[in-house]
Specification:
Mean pLDDT: 95
Order of helices and strands: HHHHHHHHH
Strand content: under 5%
Low-confidence stretches: none
CATH superfamily of the largest domain: AhpD-like
Helix content: 55-70%
Number of helices: 9
Number of strands: 0
Largest sheet: none
CATH class of the largest domain: Mainly Alpha
CATH architecture of the largest domain: Up-down Bundle
Shape: globular
CATH topology of the largest domain: AhpD-like
Number of domains: 2
Structural class: mainly alpha
Amino acid sequence: MSTFNVPTRDEVSENNQAIFDNLNKALGFVPNLYATYANSDTALENYLNFANAKTSLSAKEKEVVNLAVSQVNNCIYCLSAHTAIGKMNGFSEDQILELRAGHASFDSKLDALARLAKNITENRGRTDADVLENFFNAGYSKGNLIDTISLVGDKTISNYIHSTTQVPVDFPIAQPLEAATI
């Protein structure tokens, strides 16, 4: 059971009401996790600005990081949301499961990124030297590294908000990784 109610448009600040309206126009709904950010007068806008900021990573690469980080942090909300978004970005169900496990046998460059995102998250930023070397050898730059670390932080915030609030998941539930044969 959720420890937090998901605020409605009428229960949030005027600024957040405008953001809710924009999300409804863009997505057709306000995801429960975004609505939960709106318990704060500033957090939703700050989060969306950070999440939508310019980055050297492509949309597909961002999903690689989002999936690996959310799996390490065991966030069913973000795993479910990013499974749906991953499919929209062209990943198959099997590829998404691999990315959640922190690797990508289907693409060596994405494999290096998935391994890095998983390693950074598991080790709280104390990245293993061989994982970092593999990332650079795959063709990524120091700028890509900083953008990846920023994205790990971005996703970890959402993972923690859901883990703490337990708001209902409003995306198709991602299957447990253990249930999949990888």
